[in-house]
Amino acid sequence: MDYGNYLDRLHTQAGAFQLDAYASVLEAGRDLSLIRLTLPGARELVITAGFHGEEPAGPLTLLEHLPEIAEAARAADVGLRIYPCINPSGFERGTRYNASGEKPNNDFLRYEVAPGEWKGELAHGEAFLRHVLYDGGPKETKALRAELERFPAPAAALDLHQDAALPGSCTYAYFFGERAPYVRLMEAGGAHAQVARSMMVDEGIYSDPDGLIVFHDGSVTDYYWRRGVKWVAALETTTRTPMPQCHAINLGWVLGFIELAAGR
Q1: Per residue, what are the HEC states of the chain?
Q2: Which one of 49, 109, 115, 138 is most buried, counting C-beta atoms within 10 A?
Q3: Domain boundaries, the chain
């Protein structure tokens, strides 16, 4: 989808949301606005989507279901801060990375695992000395990182992704903290796509029997966990999952996270 058309539709769908550009990036000679949608409420949920351009379901779910999401948030007195399409040039081209070939994902944190030795990802159970906010990375990541640092930590944070590598129609999630609510959300998502249980989803990374994974990878999810956010997850659906099913799974998690942010 042309990003200009996406923004036009976003403005049309925004309704009660305030829509602002928090930054802009120059890609392939074009100045592309990076958009934030906000809705006031007592406790805040942050939603991010569209880090990878070949993963369109997140940005499209948010676009199609903004009115329903707003209604649920207002009923629960939950504030929303939504970044619906973080990598606009990749989204427009259907490519994983941006038009410059940069990788606008992760690059929020770095871990010192030994004196002077820094890593962006921790192996399972790997100890570390400290973590710091990273100051490099792609332009979209820099812009979002600076934006998120301006605000207090929210009550909950959800990142919407897709998996272009796994075959078939399935779903799984990365999470931190108490697992029971995520198990319920995964089971509900299983009505629309197979839950990827006990499966290798990336090199050396396996889901557990509930389709859940703990992985400190320097991503926005990891960043918010290190900031003390109680409810943090990155949801995955495969790109081979039909879009209506992706929307149903994504929306179920968004509505579930509104409830978690509300303390219910």
Answers
A1: CCHHHHHHHHHHHCCCCEEEEEEEEEECCEEEEEEEEEECCCEEEEEEECCCCCCCHHHHHHHHHHHHHHHHHHHHCEEEEEECCCCHHHHHHCCCCCCCCCCCCCCCEEEEEECCEEECCCCCCCCCCEEEECCCCCHHHHHHHHHHHCCCCCCEEEEEEEECCCCCCEEEEEEECCCHHHHHHHHHHCCCCEECCCCEEECCEECCCCCEECCCCCCHHHHHHHCCCCEEEEEEEECCCCHHHHHHHHHHHHHHHHHHHHCC
A2: 49
A3: 3-107+134-262
- Which pLDDT does position 134 carry in this prediction? 96
Q: What is the pLDDT of residues 35-53, one digit of tens each?
A: 999 999 999 999 999 999 9
| Residue 156 to residue 139: CA distance in whole angstroms | 25
Count of C-beta atoms within a 10 Å radius of residue 86: 28
Read off the pTM: 0.97
What CATH class is the domain 3-107+134-262?
alpha beta
Asked whether 160 and 57 are in contact (CB, 8 A), the reply is yes
User: With the C-alpha atoms ordered 128, 122, 225, 103, is the resulting torsion angle positive or negative?
Assistant: positive
